Description:
The protein is an alpha/beta fold. The protein has one domain: Macrophage Migration Inhibitory Factor (2-Layer Sandwich). It has 2 helices and 6 strands, in the order E-H-E-E-H-E-E-E. The longest helix is centred in the last third of the chain and has 19 residues, at about 70-90. The N and C termini lie close together (about 10 Å).
Amino acid sequence: MPFIDVETNLPASQFTDEVVKKLCSTVASILGKPEDRVNVTVKAGLPMLMSGSMAPCVQLVISSIGVVGTAEQNKEHSAKLFQFLTKELGLSEDRILLRFYPLEAWQIGKKGTVMTFL
């Protein structure tokens, strides 16, 4: 059950339903998770400073169980996500940051319990 949080100073209008669904599909493919389990939140139009510049930028926070826990995994994920983000958002690699957070099943609540028991 991956969680993708997009934080950006790009306008919300750039994140059409099509773009958000494409991001969801791409992340599902990269992480090897079912598309209907990926959760995407976009926070657009934020005042953001990255590397001393207010130029357009994006930070992606990727949290998931079992697939973002090692440097080797995240290096592969990073390469694929950067390829998608630079193409889809028209940003250079120096205006994109990714943060990976491994989760445990007991840290995610669903259906009145936690994923450990589902």
